Amino acid sequence: xxxxxxxxxxxxxxxxxxxxxxxxxxxxxxxxxxxxxxxxxxxxxxxxxxxxxxxxxxxxxxxxxxxxxxxxxxxxxxxxxxxxxxxxxxxxxxxxxxxxxxxxxxxxxxxxxxxxxxxxxxxxxxxxxxxxxxxxxxxxxxxxxxxxxxxxxxxxxxxxxxxxxxxxxxxxxxxxxxxxxxxxxxxxxxxxxxxxxxxxxxxxxxxxxxxxxxxxxxxxxxxxxxxxxxxxxxxxxxxxxxxxxxxxxxxxxxxxxxxxxxxxxxxxxxxxxxxxxxxxxxxxxxxxxxxxxxxxxxxxxxxxxxxxxxxxxxxxxxxxxxxxxxxxxxxx
Length: 332
Known about the structure:
The chain has helices at residues 2-8, 11-39, 44-47, 61-78, 94-131, 135-147, 152-183, 201-215, 220-248, 262-288, 293-305, 307-321; strands at residues 194-195, 330-331.
């Protein structure tokens, strides 16, 4: 509820809170990713040669299939860097702020998802990681070995703050997606309601309820699988849409415009995410990851299919009102 109150006070207040939470979580995690390389606690034999715990080669067919399975987890985290784009439309100078936000977000994501796993693997070794199923324990142990026992509570606190930041972004960012669905005539008009701070308060309230319900799903891994069914799947039409817009509507003004070759990169990524969605996520849910079985995948598919009754709801509203036009409404 505290996060909902923060989000309801507007994009400026929410962004300030997110900045504070981000710094409090990023600084300790960045230190864990960097310090072990300077203290001598990273052992090269733990990193190279890169083999799986069962002795399989790093690029064997078995290994590649495992990577595909666990993509249900790492894509949920790594792709989330795109969340920086959720608020570009509310910036005063999007042609400057868009590339700045996206480049910094992508650069830090590339850094942290490269060096943090290498630091953890180099310090602990694959056997320790394989036996420990608690990510908090893995990161805390890495930090303690490199920086001493006094940092254990700091690392635990940073992870809790990171979860709070993730929840805040889920409330603020997803609400704006629902808001745009209402403006584009794709979802019920109530999703377009905004409060005096000009934020979609109803949509954010709904997101908060859904976040609370997700807690009862079970282990974090089960939440990852359930969430990724819709999240990763949504990137397929988005990337294809980007390609077709650049091809068919090149004259449309864009405050920030990627190079022409980017549209082909979008096609390649769409194919990759389609493979992850069709093979990786079901395989992770049913076989390799042991994260709630196929039930989580099926529930995720059902949630995605809820789009259709929401769209039918909107069409019924339009027929009743005799118009498809929509303007956001403010509430006090």
